[in-house]
Amino acid sequence: MSRTKRPTWPWHGLTALILLLIGVGLWYSTSLISYEWRWNRVPQYFAFQAEDAQRAESVSRVEKIEQGGRSAHVTLVAEDGKQQLLSVASDSLQFSENDDVDEGDVVGVQRHWTAGPLLWGLWTTLWISVVSGAIGLFIGLFAGLCRLSKNPTLHDLSTLYVELVRGTPLLVQIFIFYFFIGTVLNLSREFAGVAALALFTGAYVAEIVRAGVQSIARGQNEAARSLGLSAPQAMRHVILPQAFKRVLPPLAGQFISLVKDTSLVSVIAITELTKSGREAITTSFSTFEIWFCVAALYLVINLPLSHLASRLERRLGQSD
């Protein structure tokens, strides 16, 4: 006898009701402090129209102005007969035909769209996350295998590295890299920030790799060795492929944490997403709006990464 499938729409309705109550609670909280929402100030921090002033190179006369839609093409003739052609926005034109123009006078401006501070901060967060994540993955893989090594020196050094990094705050490590190691070796703040994040990530990846390899039955390694594979070959072709399927979820979680940890490099004046948000707040006075946008941009990075890891995990699970 088949069981009747229970409808799920009441639960979805309850979810929507909870979210609605959270929104109402947020609105009510801001009304208590008389906060005025100014979302109209936010778009300019994503993209805005920059203006480049077009100036006369020498004392000249406006010989001709040709209007073409929103642009105006201005021909200036200097005293020595040299011509200068300028293209400016029509509504910014400061002179008429036959007007005299002094050297350095602004004839008009050219407008073009450019990325705002939040987009530049997002780009900085992305490239720092990718570079430090790739380096951290390599460091973690090497350190994790060293933790499993029978060589006492490799085991002891990798254990010291993992315990030292995991036992101290990331913020302190960033300060040490920038103010001490960076000063001694004359490193840029970007290099110091990426190095600190990579070593921090590598320590956690090392433990993930170690646990993943140890979760594989010992008989797998023994079977590979009995087939004539060397220890490195058995690790590469037999153990690591199986371990990768098991460590994928914690690895994805670690890299998602890395994206959020990049906000800490703002303390050494790297203008990533969080620092860009703080700078936008100082000029817009739209505190809540900017922080909500910053949080949404972090979600834009992390949600696809989490979804991709889940799909890859399902595909790998089907291949067993």
Automatic annotation (TrEMBL):
<dbReference type="InterPro" id="IPR035906">
    <property type="entry name" value="MetI-like_sf"/>
</dbReference>
<feature type="transmembrane region" description="Helical">
    <location>
        <begin position="280"/>
        <end position="301"/>
    </location>
</feature>
<dbReference type="InterPro" id="IPR043429">
    <property type="entry name" value="ArtM/GltK/GlnP/TcyL/YhdX-like"/>
</dbReference>
<dbReference type="GO" id="GO:0006865">
    <property type="term" value="P:amino acid transport"/>
</dbReference>
<keyword id="KW-0812">Transmembrane</keyword>
<feature type="transmembrane region" description="Helical">
    <location>
        <begin position="164"/>
        <end position="185"/>
    </location>
</feature>
<comment type="function">
    <text>Part of the binding-protein-dependent transport system for glutamine; probably responsible for the translocation of the substrate across the membrane.</text>
</comment>
<dbReference type="GO" id="GO:0043190">
    <property type="term" value="C:ATP-binding cassette (ABC) transporter complex"/>
</dbReference>
<comment type="similarity">
    <text>Belongs to the binding-protein-dependent transport system permease family. HisMQ subfamily.</text>
</comment>
<feature type="transmembrane region" description="Helical">
    <location>
        <begin position="191"/>
        <end position="209"/>
    </location>
</feature>
<keyword id="KW-0472">Membrane</keyword>
<feature type="transmembrane region" description="Helical">
    <location>
        <begin position="12"/>
        <end position="30"/>
    </location>
</feature>
<dbReference type="GO" id="GO:0022857">
    <property type="term" value="F:transmembrane transporter activity"/>
</dbReference>
<keyword id="KW-1003">Cell membrane</keyword>
<dbReference type="InterPro" id="IPR000515">
    <property type="entry name" value="MetI-like"/>
</dbReference>
<keyword id="KW-0029">Amino-acid transport</keyword>
<keyword id="KW-1133">Transmembrane helix</keyword>
<dbReference type="Pfam" id="PF00528">
    <property type="entry name" value="BPD_transp_1"/>
</dbReference>
<feature type="transmembrane region" description="Helical">
    <location>
        <begin position="120"/>
        <end position="143"/>
    </location>
</feature>
<feature type="domain" description="ABC transmembrane type-1">
    <location>
        <begin position="122"/>
        <end position="309"/>
    </location>
</feature>
<keyword id="KW-0813">Transport</keyword>
<protein>
    <recommendedName>
        <fullName>Putative glutamine transport system permease protein GlnP</fullName>
    </recommendedName>
</protein>
<dbReference type="InterPro" id="IPR010065">
    <property type="entry name" value="AA_ABC_transptr_permease_3TM"/>
</dbReference>
